Amino acid sequence: MNTTGTQNPKPKTHEPLELFELFEINKKSTKNTTRSKKEYPQKPSRAATKNSRNKEQIQNKHISSKKTFKAKQNTPSPEADIEAQSKNKIILKKLNRCKKIAIGLDCGFALCGIKFGWDPIIGLVPVFGDMAGLVIASFYALGLIQQFSLPFYVIFGFIVNILIDALIGVVPVVGDIADMLFKANMRNYYLAHSHLSKKYNLEN
């Protein structure tokens, strides 16, 4: 007699191909979820938008306050204007005095359309006149430097003019005529005047 006994069913085992397919399905599902997150980003909440707006408003207020503060600094006060005007008047008075001295030394007289001053007249005296002219021109330049605290390039121009005047005066007769035409003191005055007018915006 054939006796048929109950056989236990064998457990199902995934073949290697089935495992590979499952792995690929999992991969695709993860990719789809990441794409959906990227394509459909989450909208910021109302609280976040309010905070960002408040930050922008605070930044704009800070920038506007900075601009107004700078504008106030740049705009001069009426007291500063008055001080600047009074300072300019003082400088102009000093310049007018220096101009009168330079005119007396170089342009105080006129003969046949040629203007000359005391400097070329003193220079007519041999040796002593040339030395005296050099000393007078040097003292005049020093007075300008002390009164207006002039920079180096202006002082260098003074020295050049004084040396040229002294060298011209050494030559007899011709040197005296050239000294009348050169006018070293007037040249030094105009150097100082041009520098100060640029520095202080002088009207006259």
TrEMBL record:
The family database entries (Pfam families) matched by this protein are listed as:
DUF4112
* Coiled coil, from the record: none
Listed transmembrane segments: 124-145, 152-174
Q: Which InterPro entries match?
A: DUF4112
Give the start-end ranges of region Disordered.
Answer: 26-82
- Respond yes or no to whether keyword Transmembrane is given for this record: yes
User: What top-level branch of life does the organism fall under?
Assistant: Eukaryota
Provide this UniProt record's keywords sorted from A to Z.
Membrane, Transmembrane, Transmembrane helix
Q: What is this protein's record name?
A: DUF4112 domain-containing protein
**Gene source species:** Smittium simulii
